[in-house]
Specification:
Order of helices and strands: HEEEEEHHHEEEEEEEEEEEEEEE
Strand content: 25-35%
Structural class: alpha+beta
Helix content: 40-55%
Radius of gyration: 58 Å
Largest sheet: 6 strands, antiparallel, barrel
Strand order of the largest sheet: 2-11-14-13-12-15
Length: 472
């Protein structure tokens, strides 16, 4: 174990000696105060401070065909000038059709409302009528069973008995006539006629008796039982009908209401769609909402995207796309500028900082700019957008869409202590350290840093002029 510790001590002694030798041989930077400026160079584009985007977003109409060539790119326009007009023939025809259809649905709705009122009353009347019919039928059946059935049966039997009696009377009368006339030796012609008539009466009574017997048999065995069964069946059916009318009244009324509501809703939808279509008519004539210069195309985040994607659409018979920005009217005078800022420089830029823009069209010119805002989130990976106000009242040749280089001085200290950024070392505890050369060797010192730029970092605290910092 003792031998192990001796070996370990020898190892660390050699390592420290090597570090001392390397520190002695390392490059050093002598600390001194000097002016420290941070100047950022951004690629910029001039953008409009005030502009109006031209796009058509109809609610119903979809055919956005250009009627004639639109106003030319770069034209100076006044508020209210016609920029582009779209074809309206098909639109006007469809609007007329929809308005006629709307009138038809309005009439259908009025009829349906009247029919609903009648049907509602009829439903209640049908229920009442079914109940009344049932009550009457129950009374009729009760009376039939109590009286009418027995009376009908007795009438059938009585009719048969009456026919039998009539036959018996006729036979007896014929019998008496024959006896009376047979007692005479000579039968007169008148007597023969009387006997013959009596015989016909007997035959007729016999025929009526046979027919009555058949009728009575049919009545007793078929008609009367069937009549009773029919009445009982009718009574049962009417009870079912009355129950159905009672139990389904609310459902029938609800169904009628649903059908009426459908027509009301259809009418409202038709009215709404027709109103939307009427509103779309105004969109087919595009006029300048403000005075300025006309650009074909859109400004995306203030940057003109060009006219290539829309130039053919703005010719006669071209097809515009709903919601697409096809023109922009840019108010003249006031300008803005946008530039792209790297993530490494994000914390260095803040509103109200001053700078200048060098127009590509005139590199000798200088245009004052002021930071207006910095985007809160990246506009591209590792990039942020800075918006500037532009003092360009006298630069009449400048227009939105022109490019420029933007110089932004974010720091200007007459005297500051800076060291090469590579001399700094961060510790796991979050401190920033440097190696400082001393008369006896070197030591590690904690420093407080400020801004960094172009390989240099400002030291706020921890170093003094004349200190020598070791460089890796």
């Amino acid at each position: 174990m003792k031998r192990f510790f001796i070996s370990l001590l020898a190892f660390w002694s050699g390592l420290l000696a090597a570090a001392e030798q390397n520190a002695t041989q390392a490059k050093v930077h002598t600390v001194k105060a000097a002016p420290f400026r941070i100047e950022l160079n951004l690629k910029g584009v001039l953008t409009p401070a005030r502009f109006a985007e031209m796009k058509i977003r109809p609610e119903v109409w979809t055919d956005l065909t250009v009627a004639r060539d639109a106003m030319a790119h770069g034209s100076q326009v006044a508020k209210g000038d016609l920029l582009v007009s779209l074809k309206k023939e098909k639109f006007e025809q469809q609007l007329m059709d929809w308005e006629l259809a709307l009138e038809g649905t309005a009439l259908d709705l009025a009829i349906a409302q009247a029919e609903y009122a009648v049907a509602t009353n009829n439903a209640a009347l049908d229920q009442q009528a079914a109940a009344e019919t049932l009550a009457r039928l129950e009374t009729d059946v009760k009376r039939y069973l109590a009286k009418t059935r027995e009376l009908n049966t007795r009438s059938a039997v009585y009719s048969q008995n009456s026919a039998e009696n009539s036959l018996a009377y006729a036979q007896e009368e014929l019998k008496q006539l024959k006896k009376m006339y047979e007692a005479d030796d000579i039968t007169e012609e008148t007597e023969e006629i009387i006997v013959k008539r009596a015989q016909h009466s007997v035959d007729r009574a016999l025929h009526f008796l046979n027919r009555q017997r058949h009728s009575t048999e049919t009545a007793l065995e078929l008609a009367l039982p069937r009549e009773e069964a029919d009445k009982q069946t009718a009574l049962t059916r009417q009870r079912l009908a009355a129950d159905l009318a009672q139990s389904t009244l609310e459902e029938k009324l609800a169904k009628l209401k649903v059908e009426l509501n459908k027509k009301v809703r259809a009418q409202k939808v038709a009215e709404k769609n027709t109103a939307k279509l009427r509103n779309d008519l105004a969109l087919l004539t595009v006029r300048a909402p403000i005075a300025g210069v006309l650009y074909h195309g859109a400004f995306v985040e203030g940057i003109w995207s060009g006219r290539k994607s829309v130039q053919n659409k703005l010719l006669k018979d071209g097809k515009l796309v709903a919601g697409e920005i096809f023109m922009t009217v840019v108010a003249t005078g006031e300008l803005r500028a946008t530039g792209t800022l790297s993530e490494a420089d994000l914390r260095k830029v803040a509103p109200t900082q001053k700078g200048w823009a060098i127009p590509t069209a005139d590199p000798a010119d200088r245009v004052a700019v002021t930071v207006e805002s910095v985007s809160r989130i990246p506009t591209a990976p590792g990039q942020y957008t800075v918006t500037f106000t532009v003092a360009a009242a006298e630069q009449s040749y400048l227009h939105p869409g022109m490019t420029c280089a933007i110089k932004l001085r974010v720091l200007d200290k007459p005297q500051a202590i800076t060291i090469p950024s590579k001399a700094l070392r961060a510790t796991p505890q979050g401190d920033t350290m440097v190696w400082v050369k001393t008369q006896t060797g070197h030591l590690e010192r904690t420093v407080t840093t400020g801004n960094s730029h172009a390989g240099k970092t400002e030291i706020i605290e921890g170093l003094n002029e004349g200190d020598e910092v070791l460089l890796p």
